[in-house]
Amino acid sequence: MKDGARCHTLADADRLYAAVADRVIALAESAVAARGRFHLALAGGNTPRRLYERLAARDDTDWNRWEIWFGDERCVAPEHQDSNYRMARETLLAHVPIPASQVHPMIADPAIAPERAAADYADALSAHLPQQAGWPILDAVLLGLGPDGHTASLFPGTPILDVLDTPVAAVHVPRLSAWRISLTLPVLAHARHLLFVVEGAGKSDVLARLARGPAAGEPPLPVERVSGPRAEWYLDAAARGSA
């Protein structure tokens, strides 16, 4: 993976999150100027925490024009410690004046079946976002990278990778014995910007695998099916390694 317009390697995590925060604010300004709203899908997991804390300290954006979505979610209550919504609320959403009606959690009631919750979220995206060729268009999607090549909740070998007719789907991840809800490949392909944020030496092996590409007969990793001309990669030096 070579540095360039679409791949940025920062010396350390502090510089990494500063650069991504600057990029998100710039994309917000551009989207608001062009369309009056900034539709951003947040990533979950541990990596984005420091990014969200940095964004929460910014006062150079019109938070009232932001609409917050989520790239994926665990099928747990919003107050559960594993909830991506809870993490985003504690690190970002509770500290900025985005109207509550413009924050769209994936899971409002964990008693609802995952498939129903996914269908409801797909309907919400379609109702609120601009459309292109029948697909809702997000302005930006923040994404991480797992050591197995997954991003959002698009895990290797799971049937959600074959879902091509809806922007959101539920998936059972056998190795986690858990249900997740995730944006699907087509809606990610239609997003205006995909920002991959990757930190730490634990990601260097999968980045090296991405740099060389799949071997003969080896299926592409989920992230390889997502990444494309709209993708921007932000890495710290430890993650980059020799990739």
From TrEMBL:
Protein name: 6-phosphogluconolactonase
Keywords: Hydrolase
Function: Hydrolysis of 6-phosphogluconolactone to 6-phosphogluconate.
EC number(s) recorded for this UniProt protein: 3.1.1.31
Biological-process GO terms, alphabetical: carbohydrate metabolic process; pentose-phosphate shunt
CDD domains documented for this protein: 6PGL
Pathway assignment: Carbohydrate degradation; pentose phosphate pathway; D-ribulose 5-phosphate from D-glucose 6-phosphate (oxidative stage): step 2/3
Catalytic activity line of the entry: 6-phospho-D-glucono-1,5-lactone + H2O = 6-phospho-D-gluconate + H(+)
Top-level lineage group: Bacteria
UniProt entry tagged with the keyword Metal-binding: no
Family note: Belongs to the glucosamine/galactosamine-6-phosphate isomerase family. 6-phosphogluconolactonase subfamily.
Start and end residues of each Glucosamine/galactosamine-6-phosphate isomerase domain: 12-227
GO molecular function: 6-phosphogluconolactonase activity
InterPro entries xref list: 6-phosphogluconolactonase_DevB, 6PGL, Glc/Gal-6P_isomerase, NagB/RpiA_transferase-like
